[in-house]
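Please check this protein record:
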Amino acid sequence: MLERLHPDVGVLARRPGASVKSIAKLRERYPALPPELAELMREASEIELSYRGVYLRLYGPEACEEMDEAYSVSKRIPGAVTVGDNGGGEALVVMPDGAIHRIGYGALAVDALRFVAASLEALLVQASVPANAVGNCCS
């Protein structure tokens, strides 16, 4: 997926892709993990991006689990998988339908979810959402 990123999405930093074993462990814990996210994690992990000038970080499998355990995201929002953050105190979560949402770590409830994109593909390859959908930086 990284080679297909929209021109408005730039890679700032990344680590090597995750192992098949770590991704399998993550999929076991979160069976609804979208295949496109698992494929991206195989390519690279801990990916820092600039999305139209807004910071966006996508975690690797271990960080997804660590952040979920630290904040109990999947317990408070059933089906949610914490997959990253926007550097502004908000988590990025993927729901079972593959949609990406953001939510403040201090307001973890279903009714506090803010829709970002229909899928990881829509966000990174199509760049179909405005920058302020990713973070509160701009108007």
Observations:
- Residues 2-126 form a domain with the SMI1/KNR4-like fold (CATH 3.40.1580.10).
- The longest strand covers residues 9-16.
- DSSP finds six helices and seven strands in the chain.
- Helices lie at 20-29, 35-43, 61-71, 73-76, 120-124, 131-134.
